[in-house]
Amino acid sequence: MKNNFIKLAGVLLIIGAVASGVLAWLNDATKERIAMNEAMASMDPAILEAVMPGSVMFNEHEDTDLIEKIKSENEKFINLFTAVDASGNELGKVVRTWSTVKGFNGDMELYVGFTPDGQISGATVISHQETEGLGSRVTLPDFTNQFIGRDGTAVIGESDYDAIAGATMSSKSFLSGINNAIAVYAEYVK
Amino acid sequence: MNRFEIFKNGITKENPILVQQVGMCATLAITTSLLNGIGMGIAVIAVLTGSNIVISALRKFIPDEVRIPAFIIVIAAFTTMIDLLMHAYTFELYKALGVFIPLIVVNCIILARAEAFASKNSIVDSIIDGLGMGVGYLVAMILLSGIREILGNGTILGFRILPEAYEPMMMAVQPPGAFILLGLLIGVVNYLSRRKKA
Fold first, then answer.
1. Do residues A58 and A137 both lie within one domain?
2. How many C-beta atoms surround the C-beta of residue A38 within 10 A?
3. ipTM of the complex
4. CA spacing 20 to 30 A to A135: which of A56, B33, B50, B106?
5. In terms of Cα–Cα distance, which of A74, A82, A112 is closest to A96?
C-alpha cells in the first residue's frame, strides 16, 4: 500500500514537473512579445500621434546607464524613449519630463519628441493640475503645435512663443518642460 | 470503428455543442462575432488534440487511481500554452476572448475525451478523435457566431453584408439571444438528423 502511494505521487510529480518545465520555457519565449503587446495597448494613440506622428510605440531607450546618469543630474527628467513605427523602425527620441517651473497648481508632466535631425516633432502634456478650461488649454494642439519643427538643441526664450492669454503661468510651466527636454536632448542624446 | 468514422463522429453524431451540449458557458458567451467563434474553435482544437496525444501516449504510465489529476495537469498545461501563444501573437483576439481562454481547461469536452477516448485508444486514433471533436466544436461555433453576427450587427467578419437600412437585432448579440439562437440551431440539427434516420 505504501509503495503504491509513493508510485502514485511519483507519477503525478513527474507529469507536473514536465508540464511546468515546458510552460516555463514557453513563458520565457513569449515574455518579451507579451510585454510589448501590453505596452502598446496601454499607450494612448492620440498621445503617440501628437508627440511623434506615425509612431505606434515608445520603447525605453536601450542604454539604461545613460538614463540613470541623466536622472542623477537632472531631477525633473523622468525617462528617455525611442519612438518606433509599426515595422519597428526608429522615428526619433522622446523625453518624458516634469516642468521645471511650477504652473498654477504644480508641475506638469510632458512627452517631447525629437526627430533624428534634432527638430521637435511634437509635445503633449500627460498629467497636469491646471484649472480646467483655462490653464488646461496648454494640453490642446492649438497651443502645443507651435513647438513642432523648432530646433531641439536651443532653449526657447519667453519671447519666442505665444502664451495663452489668461493662462500665463500654465504656459510658462509648459515651456519650462519643453526646455528641460531640450536641455536633456542637447546634452545627452544629440 | 474505422478512422473516418471516429473523425465524423465528433462532427455529426456526437457533436460536442449541438448534440452533447457540453461547454455551453464559453459557447454562449463568446459567439458574439464570427472571428471570436473561429478563434475559440481553433484554440479548443489545439488543446483537445494536444491533450489527447499526450494522454494517449501516457495511458499505460498513468495509474488508474490518479488519472483525473494527471489529465487535468496535461490539459491545464496545453491551455496555458495556448493562452501564452495567443497573448503573444494574436493580441486582439486574446483581448476579445478574455477569460474564456484559460477557462478552456474546465471545458467538459476536453476532460471527457481524455477519459472516454484518449485513455483507452492508440495515439493515432486519439489524434483523429481530438481533431474530429474539435472540428465539430468549431463548426458549431461558426454557425452560432455567424448567425449572431449577421443578425446582431449586419456584418460577417466585420464586412457589412446587410444594407445600412437594416436595424441590428441587438438581442442576437446579447446573452438571451445566444440561448434562443442556440436552441433553434439544435432544433434544426435534431430535425435534420431525425429525417435522415427515418
1. yes
2. 12
3. 0.82
4. A56
5. A112
**CB atoms A33 and B85 under 8 Å:** no
Cell of residue A180, nine digits: 528641460
Examine the domain organization and report whether A62 and A109 are in the same domain. yes
Report yes or no: B76 at the A interface, CB cutoff 8 Å: yes
A72 and A17 part of one domain? no
Structure letter (DSSP) for residue B154: S
Q: Residue B117 carries which DSSP code?
A: I
C-alpha cell read off for A136 = 488646461
Whether A145 and chain B come into contact, CB under 8 Å, resolves to no
Domain range spanning residue A131?
A: 45-189
Split into its structural domains, chain A has a count of 2
Domain membership of residue B58 as a residue range: 3-197
- Give the DSSP letter of residue A128: -
Torsion angle, alpha carbons of B55, B57, B62, B67, to 10: 10
Closest CA to A101 of A50, A56, A135, A142: A135
> Does B69 sit within 8 Å of A34, measured CB to CB?
no
Which grid cell sits at A5?
502511494
Residues A177, A147 within the same domain: yes
Provide the number of structural domains found in chain B. 1
Nearest CA in chain A to B70: A12
Q: Are A126 and A181 in contact (CB under 8 A)?
A: no
The model's pTM is 0.70
Q: Are residues A99 and A75 in the same domain?
A: yes
Chain B residues in contact with A43 (beta carbon < 8 A): none
pLDDT one-digit tens code per residue, B138-184: 999 999 999 999 998 888 888 888 888 888 888 888 889 999 999 99
